[in-house]
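haha ok so turns out i had the wrong file open the whole time. this is the CORRECT one, sorry everyone. sequence first:
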Amino acid sequence: MDNHFKTHGAFSWTELMTTDPEAAKKFYSELFGWDIEEMEMEGMRYAVVKVGEEAIGGIMGIPPETQGAPPNWGTYVTVDDVDATVEQAQALGANILMPPRDIPTVGRFAVIQDAQGAVLSVITYQEMES
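then structure:
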Protein backbone atom coordinates (compact mmCIF):
# COMPACT_ATOMS: atom_id res chain seq x y z
CA MET A 1 0.00 0.00 0.00
CA ASP A 2 1.39 3.40 -1.01
CA ASN A 3 2.30 5.86 1.76
CA HIS A 4 -0.49 8.31 0.92
CA PHE A 5 -2.99 5.59 1.83
CA LYS A 6 -1.33 5.22 5.24
CA THR A 7 -0.65 8.84 6.17
CA HIS A 8 -3.15 10.52 8.51
CA GLY A 9 -4.39 13.73 6.88
CA ALA A 10 -3.32 12.85 3.32
CA PHE A 11 -5.70 13.01 0.38
CA SER A 12 -5.72 9.40 -0.78
CA TRP A 13 -8.59 8.68 -3.17
CA THR A 14 -11.14 10.45 -5.36
CA GLU A 15 -14.36 9.01 -6.64
CA LEU A 16 -17.04 9.96 -9.15
CA MET A 17 -20.65 9.04 -8.38
CA THR A 18 -22.69 9.50 -11.54
CA THR A 19 -25.99 8.65 -13.20
CA ASP A 20 -24.15 7.20 -16.23
CA PRO A 21 -20.91 5.41 -15.27
CA GLU A 22 -20.37 4.07 -18.81
CA ALA A 23 -20.47 7.53 -20.36
CA ALA A 24 -18.22 8.89 -17.60
CA LYS A 25 -15.65 6.11 -18.08
CA LYS A 26 -15.54 6.81 -21.83
CA PHE A 27 -15.30 10.59 -21.34
CA TYR A 28 -12.53 10.56 -18.73
CA SER A 29 -10.48 7.78 -20.29
CA GLU A 30 -10.49 9.69 -23.60
CA LEU A 31 -9.89 13.08 -21.93
CA PHE A 32 -7.07 12.07 -19.57
CA GLY A 33 -5.86 8.74 -20.95
CA TRP A 34 -6.94 6.95 -17.77
CA ASP A 35 -7.04 3.16 -17.73
CA ILE A 36 -10.23 1.72 -16.28
CA GLU A 37 -10.27 -1.61 -14.43
CA GLU A 38 -13.72 -3.06 -13.70
CA MET A 39 -14.43 -4.89 -10.47
CA GLU A 40 -17.43 -6.22 -8.55
CA MET A 41 -18.10 -4.84 -5.07
CA GLU A 42 -21.04 -5.99 -2.95
CA GLY A 43 -23.42 -6.47 -5.86
CA MET A 44 -22.36 -3.35 -7.73
CA ARG A 45 -19.92 -2.56 -10.48
CA TYR A 46 -17.02 -0.31 -9.61
CA ALA A 47 -14.45 1.08 -12.01
CA VAL A 48 -10.97 1.70 -10.64
CA VAL A 49 -9.24 4.61 -12.39
CA LYS A 50 -5.54 4.13 -13.04
CA VAL A 51 -2.74 6.29 -14.32
CA GLY A 52 -0.19 3.77 -15.48
CA GLU A 53 -0.18 1.11 -12.77
CA GLU A 54 -1.27 3.45 -9.97
CA ALA A 55 -4.90 3.34 -8.84
CA ILE A 56 -5.97 6.93 -8.16
CA GLY A 57 -9.74 6.79 -7.86
CA GLY A 58 -12.99 5.24 -8.94
CA ILE A 59 -16.19 5.70 -10.90
CA MET A 60 -19.53 4.30 -9.78
CA GLY A 61 -23.27 4.73 -10.15
CA ILE A 62 -25.05 6.87 -7.58
CA PRO A 63 -26.00 4.44 -4.77
CA PRO A 64 -29.64 4.07 -3.69
CA GLU A 65 -29.04 5.85 -0.36
CA THR A 66 -27.94 9.01 -2.20
CA GLN A 67 -30.49 8.97 -5.05
CA GLY A 68 -31.40 12.49 -6.11
CA ALA A 69 -27.87 13.79 -5.59
CA PRO A 70 -26.28 15.25 -8.71
CA PRO A 71 -23.24 13.53 -10.22
CA ASN A 72 -20.23 14.59 -8.18
CA TRP A 73 -16.56 13.95 -7.46
CA GLY A 74 -15.79 13.10 -3.83
CA THR A 75 -12.44 13.17 -2.07
CA TYR A 76 -11.16 10.86 0.66
CA VAL A 77 -8.67 11.83 3.38
CA THR A 78 -6.85 9.07 5.26
CA VAL A 79 -7.30 9.07 9.04
CA ASP A 80 -5.91 6.78 11.72
CA ASP A 81 -9.36 6.09 13.23
CA VAL A 82 -12.58 6.91 11.37
CA ASP A 83 -14.83 6.65 14.42
CA ALA A 84 -12.65 9.00 16.49
CA THR A 85 -12.39 11.43 13.57
CA VAL A 86 -16.18 11.51 13.18
CA GLU A 87 -16.61 12.22 16.89
CA GLN A 88 -14.05 15.04 16.68
CA ALA A 89 -15.69 16.45 13.53
CA GLN A 90 -19.07 16.53 15.29
CA ALA A 91 -17.52 18.30 18.28
CA LEU A 92 -16.12 20.88 15.85
CA GLY A 93 -19.56 21.52 14.31
CA ALA A 94 -19.66 19.09 11.36
CA ASN A 95 -22.75 17.26 10.15
CA ILE A 96 -22.31 13.53 9.61
CA LEU A 97 -23.87 12.70 6.25
CA MET A 98 -22.94 9.01 6.39
CA PRO A 99 -21.85 7.52 9.70
CA PRO A 100 -18.85 5.19 9.80
CA ARG A 101 -19.31 1.98 7.87
CA ASP A 102 -17.14 -0.76 6.46
CA ILE A 103 -16.18 -1.40 2.85
CA PRO A 104 -15.23 -5.09 2.74
CA THR A 105 -11.52 -5.64 1.95
CA VAL A 106 -10.93 -1.86 1.77
CA GLY A 107 -11.50 -0.26 5.18
CA ARG A 108 -13.91 1.93 7.12
CA PHE A 109 -15.19 5.32 5.97
CA ALA A 110 -17.64 8.12 6.74
CA VAL A 111 -18.87 11.25 4.98
CA ILE A 112 -18.79 14.56 6.82
CA GLN A 113 -19.92 18.08 6.01
CA ASP A 114 -18.07 20.98 7.57
CA ALA A 115 -19.79 24.03 9.06
CA GLN A 116 -19.48 25.88 5.73
CA GLY A 117 -21.20 23.03 3.84
CA ALA A 118 -18.20 21.36 2.15
CA VAL A 119 -18.42 17.58 1.96
CA LEU A 120 -15.47 15.24 2.50
CA SER A 121 -15.02 11.52 3.09
CA VAL A 122 -12.63 10.16 5.71
CA ILE A 123 -11.22 6.64 5.55
CA THR A 124 -9.06 4.22 7.46
CA TYR A 125 -7.75 1.59 5.09
CA GLN A 126 -7.96 -1.99 6.28
CA GLU A 127 -4.20 -2.49 6.13
CA MET A 128 -3.82 0.40 8.63
CA GLU A 129 -6.27 -1.06 11.17
CA SER A 130 -4.77 -2.97 14.05
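The radius of gyration is 15 Å.
again sry for the mixup
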